[in-house]
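Quick entry between incubations.
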Amino acid sequence: MLIVMNRDATKEQLDAVIRTVELQGYTAHPIPGGDRTSIGVLYNQGAVDDALFRTLPGVKETIAVTKPYKLVSREFHPSDTVIHVGEVVIGGEQLVIIGGPCAVESEEQVMTIAKHVKIAGGDILRGGAFKPRTSPYAFHGLGEEGLKILAKAKAAFGLPIVTEVMDLDCFDMVEDYADIIQIGTRNMQNFSLLRRAGHAGKPILLKRGMSATVDEWLMAAEYIMTEGNPDVILCERGVRTFVKHSRNTLDLSAVPVVRRESHLPIIVDPSHAAGYRDQVMPLARAAAAVSAHGLMIEVHHAPESARCDGGQSLLPDQFEILCRQMRAIFDVSTSTKS
Amino acid sequence: MLIVMNRDATKEQLDAVIRTVELQGYTAHPIPGGDRTSIGVLYNQGAVDDALFRTLPGVKETIAVTKPYKLVSREFHPSDTVIHVGEVVIGGEQLVIIGGPCAVESEEQVMTIAKHVKIAGGDILRGGAFKPRTSPYAFHGLGEEGLKILAKAKAAFGLPIVTEVMDLDCFDMVEDYADIIQIGTRNMQNFSLLRRAGHAGKPILLKRGMSATVDEWLMAAEYIMTEGNPDVILCERGVRTFVKHSRNTLDLSAVPVVRRESHLPIIVDPSHAAGYRDQVMPLARAAAAVSAHGLMIEVHHAPESARCDGGQSLLPDQFEILCRQMRAIFDVSTSTKS
Amino acid sequence: MLIVMNRDATKEQLDAVIRTVELQGYTAHPIPGGDRTSIGVLYNQGAVDDALFRTLPGVKETIAVTKPYKLVSREFHPSDTVIHVGEVVIGGEQLVIIGGPCAVESEEQVMTIAKHVKIAGGDILRGGAFKPRTSPYAFHGLGEEGLKILAKAKAAFGLPIVTEVMDLDCFDMVEDYADIIQIGTRNMQNFSLLRRAGHAGKPILLKRGMSATVDEWLMAAEYIMTEGNPDVILCERGVRTFVKHSRNTLDLSAVPVVRRESHLPIIVDPSHAAGYRDQVMPLARAAAAVSAHGLMIEVHHAPESARCDGGQSLLPDQFEILCRQMRAIFDVSTSTKS
Amino acid sequence: MLIVMNRDATKEQLDAVIRTVELQGYTAHPIPGGDRTSIGVLYNQGAVDDALFRTLPGVKETIAVTKPYKLVSREFHPSDTVIHVGEVVIGGEQLVIIGGPCAVESEEQVMTIAKHVKIAGGDILRGGAFKPRTSPYAFHGLGEEGLKILAKAKAAFGLPIVTEVMDLDCFDMVEDYADIIQIGTRNMQNFSLLRRAGHAGKPILLKRGMSATVDEWLMAAEYIMTEGNPDVILCERGVRTFVKHSRNTLDLSAVPVVRRESHLPIIVDPSHAAGYRDQVMPLARAAAAVSAHGLMIEVHHAPESARCDGGQSLLPDQFEILCRQMRAIFDVSTSTKS
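Done. Structure below.
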């Protein structure tokens, strides 16, 4: 952290700031400047509480310098993390496509959609058995029955499964069935759940919180990694802004930023970002164009009778066209890069 | 919900929309307009998935009409909910002031601060024993030891206690010690935790999520109420915006909006909204001026050595002045209202 | 507009609302619902002031229904607007690429960059002679001298020119030199400037305001069109959000939304959205992937000595690679669409 | 500015950064740190383009340090600016209350409202003769006729007048009539208008832009001051956020921040922030509670027939009660401060 003093700060004020820095166990490094002095704070572990210094007499402002994360940082781990799920490789040179329904509704529904995902060239099957919903009156998923249906689809089509875990209570059960365990947007800072995920033997797909900065998101991944699980896949799904024409605003600049800051793979969920089917296809192509490592897309063969998010699900035909477009765009985007 | 058709929508398109409405089990009510037809969707339970209709041919847009909540709504429960905690009344004609440290650090610290809170005229003591922190490397609270310290302070000064619950695992323990159980910002949509809170025998203080709309916040309260706990206190604590000069932007307009929409009491936490001590006092006074039912404010006698949020904690002297100012402002604000 | 009444609204309250609607010269159309009555407001011109009704007794809320724009609307003008600028066609089946420096600095600079833009396959040359800058101490452009330099580059390389107009005073001069007149983000709701642009004999490139909704942006275009100029090109350039890792958040969902709502062409400026060179290339590819009609990109052969926005300008080599990538992606994105 | 290098940055990379800093005419000051080196950039005038450095090899990130403004800064001008308008003092120890209609509609309307403002104890009369409106089809004000009506009200009731200037063309005329010239939200970065305001012989009331940071707002004031006009009054009026229940989110923390950063007076407009009458009174009281120097509030005796913003205008009785409340709250808030 950098503490910037007022132009007319006194020697006493400067000394008091230095003492407060040292009281916290850090080292203070004064830097004389053009018209004011700044004080560097060194050897801190994690983030420093800037408010502590900002209110001291003579202090103009405080500025965070070092990033608070370590294990997720590319500085500490320069080469890309590559995660193997069955024969699927996430974080490598290929675009990974995850498709499937928002919620598992019935065996027939999942088998039908899984077949379409397979034919279209999808790599992984998604589907929710435990659904966090804004309303207590909405459909909350089939629970273990849903997980068993996913397992059947996996057996039938050879597609690994990603499904969401909602809380500590259902974690063991989800871990038994899933190939990748998803932690949803609203749980990105459910720290107890993150710690539990750190002990899981499966990769974790960690969605970005609705209004999380990239730093906060990476810190959430750090929680998982500090507990011992190195396999975290980040998933951008749009952030909340003043914009009303889409459910969220997809922040595609997060992809190059995460690729620069971290070694972890990053995928994109355009379905929840858009909220509307006619926006999903363009945004999915855009995600391939920014060189995301993969995409997660909702597909439904009968969206008008879906029990959850039917309006943002692609029809199988649309999904098939999209898969071709995305792979072509990903190739164009990565091939000439160097 | 209202479905607005294109000006040139055909009879067939209109009929298809009506069929889709009815397929969901709702009633469709066509409304001929000046230059286009709209279709009212009636008898729906909870929110309707607008995306389902918005992508049908001939549909221009869809518009939500009825609010998705019931139990929290003033329409269903016109008179104010008033909550009794010992001798303290929340939701009545008095301003309730909650003060205390961010985190419980030691018995001496809590006893010192509790005494100041009592002297200043505070009604309730706050203090965290389980602390959700953005970084896995930060101080996460003393756990049950912290709860025991709070219990001693309660016994010594007669102040009821509010403290945060972080997850399902520690819920029973927190429920044993707390007079009011706090659910934090990052857990506002932790639905498993909300359901558990609905079975608690204590009032729940539900903080607004960092980017939650008032509707989403009230829906979170609805989760608690549907499980049987009628005593929910809402707490505005600032929302995330582009603004950088404060940690969050305190949304004081939420207070009159919640008072209009709901019968539940609403208090304000200016400490987390501001993030800086010099903003806390003005924002606290502002909260009294919008007729919030109460305030929750961080107080620390030695903020420079606090293990958490020292920079936003008021000194005891500041807190004492502030209590007088807030009560005077609350009286001015409510007395001449009618 | 739709006025939603309380469940327990009285007949008198309903009648009072209807009278207020009629006092404004509109027609009121009551719609009995499941558990409450709503009132449709018909035959209004432009937007209705909802606050007028929302505060009447018995009114629960008010909901806007019809969009306030007409001339820009696809409903009133179903076929795409196609704009011809010399031999360049904007709004057709081709991706139009605009390249050039942020600011005109010297003849040598512009001629060098223009040559690179031409070689890379760019269609139009950009460059600012009048620069709106946040700071009064920053470089504000060369004025007419800058316009003359652009004219030389146009003559030398056959590239039409787009350049920004800052105010009414310099409008005539800019109109003389420019092939397309740009109205910048900060002037999107400078209504006097919009009206003047409506009398210009050249197409207008209208950038989206930093926090403008698509409706407000289209209303700004409506200002230009009502004065008689049908040739408006919309330009998405990112919106302001809580996100800090990029200068703005590029809202790519605006492209399909505008294409649905309006017949006007829409292009994207990834340079100002990103603010950093390493984000510009991925975001530019993403814009081609969402089927924008074109892109406007900053290019500089010596960005480290640029007087404005050097850090977000691409090097000529990068721009050349990017042009190839964008055209390939645009083809993939549009070819299989039907 | 501070340039933070990667942990493994080479000596060559460091030297290249230093050269780039010096090429811009600044001084580079390397600061060895715990695990990485940072480089301070000194003696820069105004803001440094961080993107220029952030993309150099070996650079991790860049961090702005010094504020870009000078004349508006409290560091350069420690004592409060106090502005005298007739007998009214803005920026002193009294709360200044500005009231009046959104738009001037007729002589009878303005005289009626002005009388109410006077009786309620208001200090200044507001009213728009030139109205910037989102829609070209809305009422745009009476122009000079409106200014003449304001002049009559001023003569009759002894209230100074504040009214908005929309563009360069009407500036001279507005300057003739107004006691304070208002620059609206949408013109906060209309730099030509700001420069013209810098030559005006009247104080300027500068509204904050809808998504402006405090820094950008102060830079806009700096534009006015650099041209020679020292009398700038800042006006907070809410910022655009994801929140939908109010028209804008009133950012009251801006008041203590501006009072700390700048010597200029700051007032608050709760009417445009709220957008709804029932939110205006609480937010107005809140503004007094954060010790704003004044308030600007819309008042109308017949809001249901107002041609502009009737729904957010207070009735004369409400305004009178509010004036008493605000003055009492301001006294409570400022008296015990020290």
